[in-house]
Every structure is written in structure tokens, then in C-alpha cells.
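Customer ticket, subject: "Can you confirm the structure for N-acetyltransferase domain-containing protein?"

Message body: Hello, I'm evaluating your service for our small team and ran a test protein. I'd like someone to confirm that this is what the system normally returns, since I don't have a reference to compare against.
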Amino acid sequence: MAYSIHTLPKLDQADTTFQEFSRRLKNLRLQSLKADPDKWVSIYDSEVNQPDDFWWNRLQDSQAIHHILVKNTSESDGPDSKSVLLAGEWVGFVVIIVPDAENKSPEYLMNALYIDTQARGIGLGKRMVRQVIDTVRKHETKAGQAPPFCTASVRHGNDSALALYRKLGFRVVNADGIAEKEGRKYRTIEIRYDI
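Agent reply: Thanks for trying us out. I re-ran your input and got the following:
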């Protein structure tokens, strides 16, 4: 089976393709929270009843880049990414938060990574992380600015994710991080990849 990675385009909210992408991303995100609740800071019960605007805002966030892992079918051999995204089955995603224009820090945050349980163990997580690194490399560094770097937080106990990141060159910068969401605190390991 062939898989490909595509970046979700920024579309107008009234566009039916935008609404379809939003629906698919919502379904995949909720699937991730259900399948691996101990690996996320977010909680399924908190996100399942969110209104459409919640999901639309995620797609329209100018600082967010969404890469989607698509399981290709014969129908998904379209001429462009949009065609492939519409025809193929979405089996994974990664979200990158890029620095805003006023931010002096060249930090890119890998905010979420998920691969469907049926597509694990065949190197797709590695491909997705490499896609993140390539995306960060392609973004321009402003004159006089430090080189870009990518960070992520891994929940304690998510040893497979941490092993993958370390294998790809991420280093631990804080083994005792704390993330807080909706009044809950989670122990995390903060990692960094220098470009």
C-alpha cells in the first residue's frame, strides 16, 4: 500500500472542500484521542462536542501547518494534493506551529503527531517527522536571526514516540516538563531538533 504526505491548503471557510477537510481532520483528531488517550494532553470528551467553528479555526490558523498522511487508492492518483486529499483515506496527521512574524524566536513547535493504529510499524511516523524537519528547513530565516529549530513535548510513558524522535536526532532539553490543560497537569519530556 502506498502512502503520501500532503499539506492542507488554506481555503475559504465557505468552500465545500474546506468543510470536507475540516470534517476529516476532526474525525481523525477525535480518533487519535480515543485510540491513545494516555499519549495526549487533550481529552476526547472535551473536544467531541466542540462546534464547527472550533475545527474551522484550527484550519484557518495562519501559524498552523497541517500535514496529512494519506493512504492512496487508485482514485487518489489525482494531479494535485487537493485531489489526493479528497480521494484518499486520511490515516495520520502532524501539526506544526510556526513563529509569528513579530516573534524573534525561530522555534517551530511540532504540536501533534498521530498515525492510525492500522498504519503503524512501517516507518510512517519517521516519514512524518522528517516532513516536519523538511518544512522547518524550507521556512526562511530572517537576517540576523538564529537558525530555526523544532520542539515538541512528549508525555511521560510515551516511550515509542520518544525513541522515534531521538533516533531522528531530537535531543531531550527538559526531562521533567509540565503541561497543563483544562486544570490537569501532565508530566512531559521536552525535546528539540536544531536545523
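A couple of notes from the result: The chain has a mean pLDDT of 92. The chain has one domain: 3-194. Feel free to reply with more questions.
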